[in-house]
Write a structure and sequence with these properties.
single chain; 217 residues; alpha+beta; Membrane-bound Lytic Murein Transglycosylase D, Chain A; Immunoglobulin-like; 4-stranded mixed beta sheet; 4-stranded antiparallel beta sheet; 24% strand
């Protein structure tokens, strides 16, 4: 009898401890919820795309014989000091023929009178050693052919280096290569002749306009 009573006492004591623990846990949970501040909301960060600062345009001009910094500045309507700053030149520094200068802005297209530039002919067509295009200029003012192109319409394109033609000046563009360019002879550097009877030669300005054409007879 005493053993049964003792077991019953232990049961009630365990039950009481379990109930007390549950009540204490509930009280602590309610207290925690009422006293601990809620977590701050996650801040919303607005992503503002950065607009890149535009780079002022510049172009390259090759110095010719007789050019001065003042003349170049007047020609392109920019201050001398700006050209000096852009190219790291000292005040009064002399220019060298063939020197490349950075000029701020965009080059003004030269106005070429209709017919002033002509393709006079294709000589030695079909023979690599002899084949060349002859271009003649009849304008009243010097013209800079740098950036001009000869196009055969089949993927062959010759781009003129720095070259200035005066009135009644002429230049020969040879198909072959292996020789240095001069003021009257330019070399394409191709390995085979490209001009043949019936083919059309196109002379294009730097902006892509066809200025002169010639059909090989």
């Amino acid at each position: 009898m005493k053993s049964k009573n003792f077991m019953r006492l232990l049961f009630y004591l365990g039950l009481n401890a379990a109930v007390s623990a549950c009540v204490a846990w509930g009280v602590l949970t309610l207290w925690w919820r009422s006293h601990v501040p809620p977590a701050p909301p996650t801040p919303v960060v607005a992503v503002v795309p950065l607009t890149p600062t535009p780079t002022p345009p510049v172009f390259v001009y090759t110095v010719h014989s007789g050019d001065t910094l003042n003349a170049i500045a007047q020609r392109f309507k920019v201050p001398e000091t700006e050209i000096e700053r852009l190219n790291g030149l000292k005040e009064g520094q002399k220019l060298a023929v063939g020197q490349a200068l950075l000029i701020p802005g965009r080059p003004t297209p030269q106005k070429i009178p209709s017919g002033a530039l002509e393709i006079s002919g294709v000589l030695g067509a079909g023979i690599l050693e002899d084949e060349h295009v002859l271009i003649v200029y009849h304008g009243s003012e010097d013209i800079d052919l740098q950036g001009w192109r000869i196009d055969d319409g089949e993927g062959h394109e010759f781009v003129f280096p720095a070259l200035r033609l005066s009135r009644n000046g002429a230049v020969q563009v040879w198909t072959k290569g292996g020789l240095p360019n001069t003021v009257v002879d330019l070399y394409w550097g191709l390995k085979k002749a490209i001009w043949q009877s019936g083919k059309t030669v196109e002379l294009r300005s730097p902006d892509g306009r066809v200025v002169a054409t010639y059909k090989v007879p």
